Automatic annotation (TrEMBL):
Species this protein is from: Gonium pectorale
Pfam families hit by this protein: zf-MYND (PF01753)
Protein's name in the database: phytol kinase
Metabolic or biological pathway, per its Swiss-Prot or TrEMBL entry: Cofactor biosynthesis; tocopherol biosynthesis
Residues covered by the MYND-type domain: 728-773
Lineage per the UniProt record: Eukaryota, Viridiplantae, Chlorophyta, core chlorophytes, Chlorophyceae
Keyword set includes Secreted: no
Residues covered by region (Disordered): 600-660
Keyword hit for Membrane: yes
Low complexity: compositionally biased ranges: 629-643
UniProt keyword annotations, A-Z: Chloroplast, Kinase, Membrane, Metal-binding, Plastid, Transferase, Transit peptide, Transmembrane, Transmembrane helix, Zinc, Zinc-finger
An example Gene Ontology CC term for this record: membrane
Length: 782
C-alpha cells in the first residue's frame, strides 16, 4: 500500500510541477551524439548517467499497471507532441542505424549500467514501452486526440523502422556479456508486446469513429508494413518457432537466428515446456503476420508460418496427452514421446495459439478462380486448413478453457457451402463447391462425427460447446446436407448412425426437453440434437422440382436422398419411443398434475414391449370419469378410481372408455375464457372441432405425401450405406471417433453376429441371444 501511494504521488508530481523538467531532461538526453555518449572521461560518464537516469524515469512513468489511468493520456500526449519518438528515431540511427554504428555501440570500452549499449537498450525499451502504453491508453473512451497523435508520431518519425533495425543489429554485434544479453532480451520482449498492441490498434481504429477511424487504420497499417519493423517482428517469432519445431528459417542468417532470444533462459532446466515469454513472442508473430496482409513475406509463406504454429500446438497437445496417459506428467521431459517437438507449448497456451493460427491464416487462402487446373491446387491448400482445424478439434480442444471452445465452432462454419442445397435438392451440381470440397478433403465430416460422439459422452464438455455454437449460427440442415451429399458414402452414413446412438444416449426426458426448446426457439436452439430436428423438419420442405426435364437427380442428390431416407429409418423409431415412453409421460404429467409419476404402463421398457393401444385412451377415460364424478358429487369410493385405472392399463377395462364429448369441451372453453385463459380456450375449441370432424380419421384424410417421399429410395436400399453395426439392438456405445471405425468382435458361440464391446454382448445375451446362439450351434444354450 505504501509503495502504491508513493508511486501515485510520483505520478502526480510528474504530471504537475515535475512534468516540464523531466521532459526537458529527456529531450536533452535524446539529442546527445554518439561521441558524447561513448567518449572517455568524467564528463562523458556524467552525460551517460544523466541520460540513462532520465530514460529510466520516463520508462517508469509510462509503464504503470494500468496505462488507461486518468493522468497518463495527458503525459503521453505531451511526449508524442513533443517529438519524443522523432528524436529517439534519429538517435537510434546514429547509435545503431548501420552495422558499423551498431558494432561501435555494442563493442565500446565502457561497461556497466551506463555504457553506450545499455543506453541504446534503454532507448529502445523506452520507444517500445511508450508505443505500447499509448496503444493501451487509446482503448479508453474520448482518446481520439491521443490516437491521432500516436499515428502521426509513428508515421512521421518512422521509429518502428529505426527501432527494428537497431534491435537486430545490436543483437548481432553485442558482446557475450551476460548484462548486455539480458538487456537486449528485455528489449526484444518489449518489442513483441508493442508489435502486438499496434496490430490490435489497427482493428480498433478500423471499427471506431466511422470514416475517420478507418483513415487512421489505413495510415497505421502502412506504418506497420515497413520493411525493418516487419522483418524484426518476423525474426523474433521465427526464432522461437525454429527453436521449438526445428523447421526452416526461410533464409534468416544463422548468426542472427542464434543471436535472437528464444526464451531458453526462462525454461526450467528439466522442462521442454515453452516459457510464457516465448509463447507470447510466437503469438505476436502470428498476429503481426495477419496485419501485414499480402505484403512480404507473401501469402503462401505467411500461410506456411501460420500452419507451422498451429501444428506445433497440435503436436504439443498430443505430447501432453501422451505424457499424462503414460504417468510422466506434463512438466518435464520424461513422459513426452520421442517424436514430440524440442519445445512444446504449455497447456494454457494451446487453444489461444491454434485459434489465432486458424483465424489469421484463413484470409491467406487463395480464392477459387473457376479454372479447374488452378482450383485443384487451391483446394489442396484450403484442405490443409481444414486438416489443421480437424486436428485442433481432436487434440487441442480438450485443453480449451471456458469460453474458447465456442470460438472453434465459429471457424468451422461453411457459409458458402450452404447455398447449393437451398437452390434445390434434386439439382445439386455433380462436383462439390470449392469450399465443400476443401472441407471434405480436410476431414470435416469425420471431425463432426467425432465432436458428436464426444459430446454424447460428456454433454457439458468443450465438444458440446462447439456443436452448440454451430447450431447458433444457422439451422444445421443446409450445413450438413452438402457434406452428406458429396462426402464419402460410408463416412456420411456413419454420422447418421452416430446421431441415432446420440438419441439413445440422451434419453426420452432430455430428448423431449431439447425438442421443446428447439420448437420454441423457431429452429435456432443450439442443442446437441439440433442436427436431428433440423434434418427431419427441413428436408421435406425443400424444393424437389429442380431436376432438369427428362433427367433424374444428380449423383450427389441421389446420395443425399439415400441418406435422408436412412436418417428417417434410424431416427424416427427413437423419437417415437421417446414420445410414448413412461419417462416422457411422467414429464408431461408433471406439467399438468404436479410432481409424482402417473400410473405406470406395464412392460413399457422399449417400443417392442409397449402397452396395448387401448391402454392410453382407457386410462384417460378413467381420469375423465373421476373428474366428472367430482364435479357432480358422485365420486367413486376411495381406491376405486385407482383400481379402475389399473384395470384399464392392463388392457381389460371394467367399462368402455368414456368418449370425449365436443359439447363438454366447448363448455370448458367458455369457462376458460371467463377466466381470461384465451389460449387454452382456443385449444379446447379446436379439439372440439377436431372431434366433430371425426377425430383421427378426419385429420389423416387431409394428409398428403410430401413431394420428397416419391424421390426417396426404399428403406432397405438406404440402409445398405450403413456400416456394420453391433448386434445389440439397444447399443449406445459412443467410444471411438467414428461408427465406421468400430471393430466388431464375433460372438464366440455362433459366430453369426458381432459386438462392439463386452457390455453389448452381455446385454444381448440376456435379451434372448443366449437361446438363439445355442440353437445355432445345434444344442441348447447352457
Amino acid at each position: 500500500m505504501r509503495s502504491s501511494l508513493q508511486r501515485s504521488e510520483l505520478y502526480m508530481a510528474v504530471c504537475g510541477p515535475a512534468c516540464l523538467p523531466l521532459l526537458g531532461l529527456l529531450a536533452a538526453s535524446l539529442r546527445l551524439s554518439p561521441h558524447e555518449l561513448a567518449g572517455e572521461g568524467a564528463r562523458h560518464q556524467l552525460y551517460r548517467e544523466i541520460a540513462c537516469g532520465s530514460m529510466g524515469s520516463a520508462i517508469y512513468v509510462v509503464a504503470p499497471a494500468d496505462p488507461r489511468s486518468g493522468y497518463l493520456p495527458r503525459f503521453l500526449l505531451a511526449l508524442l507532441r513533443g517529438d519524443t519518438l522523432h528524436a529517439a528515431g534519429r538517435q537510434l540511427v546514429l547509435l545503431a542505424g548501420s552495422p558499423e554504428a551498431a558494432a561501435a555501440t555494442a563493442t565500446a570500452e565502457q561497461t556497466g549500467s551506463s555504457s553506450p549499449l545499455a543506453y541504446a537498450a534503454d532507448l529502445l525499451y523506452l520507444v517500445y514501452t511508450l508505443i505500447q502504453a499509448a496503444c493501451v491508453a487509446c482503448q479508453a473512451p474520448q482518446t481520439l486526440q491521443l490516437r491521432e497523435a500516436l499515428v502521426a508520431a509513428l508515421e512521421g518519425s518512422q521509429v518502428l523502422e529505426h527501432a527494428g533495425r537497431a534491435l537486430l543489429l545490436l543483437r548481432l554485434h553485442r558482446k557475450d556479456a551476460q548484462l548486455n544479453s539480458r538487456l537486449l532480451d528485455k528489449v526484444a520482449f518489449a518489442a513483441n508486446a508493442a508489435h502486438t498492441r499496434v496490430a490490435g490498434m489497427v482493428s480498433a481504429c478500423g471499427s471506431a469513429n466511422g470514416r475517420a477511424g478507418r483513415a487512421l487504420a489505413d495510415r497505421l497499417r502502412a506504418v506497420v508494413a515497413g520493411r525493418c519493423s516487419r522483418h524484426a517482428a518476423l525474426c523474433l517469432g521465427l526464432a522461437v518457432l525454429c527453436d521449438a519445431d526445428g523447421g526452416p528459417a526461410y533464409g534468416m542468417p544463422p548468426e542472427l537466428l542464434a543471436a535472437l532470444p528464444a526464451g531458453k533462459e526462462d525454461h526450467a532446466p528439466d522442462s521442454r515446456i515453452m516459457s510464457a515469454k516465448a509463447a507470447t513472442q510466437l503469438r505476436g508473430m502470428v498476429r503481426w503476420l495477419h496485419r501485414l496482409g499480402a505484403a512480404l513475406p507473401g501469402p503462401r509463406t505467411t500461410l506456411a508460418l501460420q500452419f507451422r504454429v498451429g501444428w506445433l500446438a497440435v503436436a504439443s497437445a498430443r505430447a501432453l496427452t501422451a505424457a499424462d496417459r503414460g504417468g510422466g506428467g506434463s512438466g518435464g521431459t520424461g513422459g513426452l514421446a520421442a517424436g514430440a517437438p524440442r519445445r512444446i507449448l504449455a497447456a494454457g497456451d494451446l487453444m489461444v495459439m491454434t485459434l489465432d493460427a486458424l483465424q489469421y491464416s484463413w484470409p491467406c487462402l487463395p480464392p477459387p478462380t473457376g479454372v479447374p487446373e488452378r482450383d485443384s491446387v487451391r483446394t489442396a491448400e484450403a484442405a490443409g486448413w481444414w486438416r489443421l482445424a480437424a486436428a485442433v478439434a481432436a487434440d487441442v480442444l480438450p485443453y480449451a478453457p471456458d469460453g474458447q471452445a465456442a470460438m472453434l465452432g465459429n471457424l468451422l462454419d461453411l457459409p458458402k457451402g450452404r447455398l447449393p442445397v437451398r437452390r434445390g435438392l434434386l439439382s445439386l451440381p455433380p462436383e462439390p463447391p470449392f469450399e465443400v470440397a476443401a472441407a471434405l478433403e480436410g476431414g470435416l465430416l469425420r471431425c463432426l462425427e467425432r465432436l458428436m460422439r464426444r459430446a454424447g459422452r460428456d454433454p457439458q464438455g468443450p465438444e458440446a460447446a462447439v456443436l452448440r455454437t454451430l447450431g447458433r449460427l444457422d439451422i444445421l440442415w443446409p450445413y450438413l446436407a452438402p457434406l452428406l451429399a458429396y462426402g464419402e458414402p460410408r463416412q456420411a452414413a456413419a454420422l447418421v448412425a452416430t446421431l441415432r446412438k446420440l438419441l439413445r444416449t440422451v434419453g426420452p426426458r432430455a430428448m423431449l426437453a431439447e425438442w421443446a426448446k428447439w420448437a420454441i426457439a423457431d429452429g435456432s436452439h443450439e442443442g446437441l440434437l439440433q442436427a436431428v430436428f433440423d434434418v427431419l423438419y427441413e428436408a421435406p420442405l425443400l424444393d424437389v422440382s429442380g431436376a432438369a426435364p427428362g433427367e433424374g437427380p444428380s449423383p450427389a442428390s441421389q446420395q443425399l436422398l439415400r441418406l435422408v431416407s436412412c436418417a428417417a429409418c434410424e431416427w424416427l423409431p427413437e423419437l417415437a419411443w421417446a414420445v410414448v415412453s413412461e419417462e416422457a409421460c411422467c414429464a408431461v404429467a408433471a406439467v399438468y398434475t404436479g410432481p409424482g409419476p402417473p400410473a405406470a404402463v406395464a412392460g413399457a421398457d422399449r417400443p417392442g414391449h409397449s402397452a396395448p393401444d387401448d391402454a392410453a385412451p382407457a386410462t384417460v377415460g378413467s381420469g375423465v370419469r373421476e373428474a366428472e364424478g367430482a364435479a357432480t358429487g358422485l365420486a367413486p369410493a376411495a381406491g376405486t378410481g385407482r383400481a379402475d385405472s389399473t384395470a384399464a392399463a392392463g388392457g381389460t377395462p371394467d367399462r368402455p372408455p368414456l368418449p370425449w364429448r365436443p359439447e363438454l369441451l366447448r363448455e370448458a372453453a367458455t369457462q376458460l375464457r371467463s377466466y381470461e385463459e384465451h389460449e387454452a380456450a382456443a385449444e379446447a375449441e379446436a379439439l372440439a372441432a377436431y372431434l366433430e370432424r371425426g377425430g383421427d380419421g378426419a385429420y389423416q384424410a387431409t394428409l398428403r405425401p410430401s413431394p420428397l417421399a416419391s424421390a426417396m429410395p426404399p428403406p432397405a436400399e438406404a440402409r445398405r450405406l450403413l456400416p456394420g453395426r453391433c448386434a445389440n439392438p439397444a447399443c449406445a456405445n459412443l467410444e471411438g471417433d467414428s461408427e465406421a471405425g468400430l471393430t466388431l468382435k464375433a460372438c464366440a458361440g455362433c459366430g453369426a453376429v458381432g459386438y462392439c464391446c463386452r457390455p453389448c454382448q452381455l446385454e444381448h445375451w440376456r435379451a434372448g441371444h443366449k437361446g438363439a446362439c445355442g440353437r445355432a450351434r445345434g444344442g441348447g444354450g447352457a
